[in-house]
Amino acid sequence: MVSKYVDNKELKRVIEDGKLKPFRIRQILKKQGIILTSTNAEQIAEQVYPILWGSEDIQNMSCAMDDSGNYIKSSLLTLHNDNAENIMDEAEDFFSNASYRDTKYKLSSVIRENNNSLIVKLQYAIIRPGRNELISTQYKTTEIKARKISKNKVMLDVRQASNSEMKELNKFLANATKRDGTFTTNHISLQVLTNENRVAFFDEFVKKKFDGWRFDTVTKIELKKFEGTDKEESKELDEEDDDSIKNLQGITSAILNGTSIRNNSFVRECLQNNFYVTTMGYKFECMSDIREVVVEINFKYDDLKIDICKTYEYDSYAEDLRLHPSLYNVQEEILTMFQQGAYKKYMEIMERQKEETLKKMEISE
User: CA 360 to CA 365: how far, in whole Å?
Assistant: First the structure.
């Protein structure tokens, strides 16, 4: 949201400094019938300087700047009310009447879409002193999509702008549910899965088909040593296993970045010796357009998180892909697709784990 006039000198400086890429300016102007042929940042800055920009244009430019905060992050958790007569009516009242005084948030709106869903919009400002007007204050919106999934349960789909924000939002929800007394939150956690199923979740997610997108490579893996009591930990070790454990001695967690790292020998060795995956990044290619996206799945703060980390768009002048944040509506569409796929896979594995546990109990009896 742009709340004050931004002088063109400041816009010019942002382009010259490389914060706003020339190809993004060309895309915005092309939609309005203005074609720029320049590719040099300084030339583009001079050409756009005389243009009288509207607030919507400035807002689009602000959101398209090369900033990690302009990539959408999402988290899933559930809200329960066992005594609810109408769960959506009471969820609407819950957010409308909650106190936001001790948080960074300001309630913007609670919008009832239909009988089964509503959207809560919270706004806050990021202040960066010393920068020019266009980037010194950025206004962000945290959107909570509440969807009814049973008579007494609502799924909260939280769209936030930063990795650390979910910690603050969970704190707000904990205080709000405590004051309210009728609702409780439930987190979608990796901890309830067995070590084997923690690894299976990340491996099986990428095998799902996503309409219009093709899996390219794994770009990031975070590993953590399993501290549980699964039976496989007590198996007899042969000489090769013993050597592997010696190689991993003292390591309790690891982070790897790169390409095709799922088949890396170190990763395989860790997963064979009671490590599990906590985070995995995937790169996908669009099959209908020249675009790429990197999404990351993790369970930080005990919530299922699906984040867009990078987007690459085609620059016809350079005839190559450019790393740059896509517009929010484009990111939203991509994120929804991967988020639904991840949640569905998580629930499938949970159901499979329950069935396996029941079979083991029957055999033991």
Answer: 9
